[in-house]
UniProtKB/TrEMBL annotation, chain A:
4'-phosphopantetheine is transferred from CoA to a specific serine of apo-ACP by acpS. 4'-phosphopantetheine is transferred from CoA to a specific serine of apo-ACP by AcpS. This modification is essential for activity because fatty acids are bound in thioester linkage to the sulfhydryl of the prosthetic group. SUPFAM superfamilies: ACP-like. Belongs to the acyl carrier protein (ACP) family. The modification O-(pantetheine 4'-phosphoryl)serine is found at residue 37. Keywords: Cytoplasm, Fatty acid biosynthesis, Fatty acid metabolism, Lipid biosynthesis, Lipid metabolism, Phosphopantetheine, Phosphoprotein. Carrier of the growing fatty acid chain in fatty acid biosynthesis. GO terms for molecular function: acyl binding; acyl carrier activity. This is Acyl carrier protein. It is found in: Cytoplasm.
TrEMBL record, chain B:
Gene3D superfamilies: NAD(P)-binding Rossmann-like Domain. One of its GO terms (molecular function) is 3-oxoacyl-[acyl-carrier-protein] reductase (NADPH) activity. Belongs to the short-chain dehydrogenases/reductases (SDR) family. It is an enzyme of class 1 (oxidoreductase). Its EC number is 1.1.1.100. It comes from Marinobacter orientalis. Pathway: Lipid metabolism; fatty acid biosynthesis. This is 3-oxoacyl-[acyl-carrier-protein] reductase.
């Protein structure tokens, strides 16, 4: 079973079309990985599906980096 | 055929324009799921597609009810896969002069003709975004642009659909998803058969083509917008009205 970190990074790669080597924990979705507003919506939806959870809009807005997403998932699943 | 392997959802497909659209998309090779408000309607859609040797079937779905849309989409996805072509055709009229229009006439037309388009579109968008391909085609009406006495509710809903479509087009273009409207004029369907002779005569005077349109003539434009060839057409309203109104 993969760790939360591995699963989050895999989804980030799939959704944003970036290589695994480009994705660091500190990477910002928008600034480092080139996500636009629609990408971030899709990314959150993909995370919700993978981890079978619901991320409220006000929480989703705060998820700016890979580490933010990992922390959120760990705390809420 | 160009739509082979793709699933299309057509609302209000038992008769008129919806029925012709279902057939036209099926002719292009799509698997077509048509919606009806009754079980008998759904069966007639299945029978019609089967008789044409086409892939697809009818389901019961009431676009005025959010729960029914959720259940319908679940059924479509389970039986035919994620729809990547959505044709919002289902609609009603509750005509009356504004001074006599009831709240219920207003809200039922807005719910069925406008809110339904928001709900079905939202429900299919995710699948289309994943597929990086999608077509949302909304059936508007010539009266959205022209206005029509006795149809303030219907005109408001249809004009709303056109504005909605333009926003959707801008939001989703970079995912290979297009959103367009087709605005029919007077087409020979049950909706226009309700008119009396005097109304029909008056209509003919404003239609340069001098005749009503056929449902198939609307369906042909929908089929084009659904095709690969129309990939760069988005946010557009195409009029099919024999020249009575040109926007």
């Amino acid at each position: 079973m993969s760790t939360v970190e591995e699963r989050v990074k895999k989804i980030v790669c799939e959704q944003l079309g970036v290589k695994e080597s480009e994705v660091q924990n500190t990477s910002s979705f928008v600034e480092d990985l080139g996500a636009d507003s629609l990408d971030t919506v899709e990314l959150v939806m993909a995370l919700e599906e993978e981890f079978e959870t619901e991320i409220p809009d006000e929480e989703a807005e705060k998820l700016a980096s890979v580490q933010d997403a990992i922390d959120y998932i760990v705390a809420h699943t | 055929m160009s739509l082979e392997g793709k699933t299309a959802l057509v609302t209000g497909a038992t008769r008129g324009i919806g029925k012709a659209v279902a057939r036209a998309l099926a002719d292009q090779g799509a698997t077509v799921v048509g919606t009806a408000t009754s079980a008998a309607g759904a069966e007639s859609i299945s029978a019609d597609l089967k008789a044409a040797g086409a892939k697809g079937f009818g389901i019961v779905m009431n676009v005025a009810e959010p729960d029914s849309i959720d259940a319908g989409l679940k059924e479509v996805t389970e039986k035919a896969g994620v729809p990547v072509i959505l044709v919002n055709n289902a609609g009603i009229t509750r005509d009356n002069l504004l001074m006599r229009l009831k709240d219920d006439d207003w809200s039922s037309v807005i719910e069925t003709n406008l809110s339904s388009v928001y709900r079905t579109s939202k429900a299919v968008l995710r699948g289309m975004a994943k597929a990086r391909w999608g077509r949302v085609i909304n059936i508007s009406s010539v009266v959205a642009g022209m206005g029509n006495p006795g149809q303030a509710n219907y005109c408001a809903a249809k004009a709303g659909v056109e504005g909605f479509t333009r926003s959707l087009a801008k939001e989703m273009s970079n995912r290979g998803i297009t959103a367009n409207c087709v605005a029919p004029g007077f087409i020979d369907t049950d909706m226009t058969r309700k008119l009396d002779d005097k109304q029909r005569e008056a209509m003919m005077e404003v239609i340069p083509a001098g005749r009503l349109g056929e449902p198939e003539e609307v369906a042909a434009v929908v089929a084009f917008l659904a095709s690969e060839a129309a990939g760069y057409v988005t946010g557009e309203t195409i009029h099919v009205n024999g020249g009575m109104y040109m926007g």
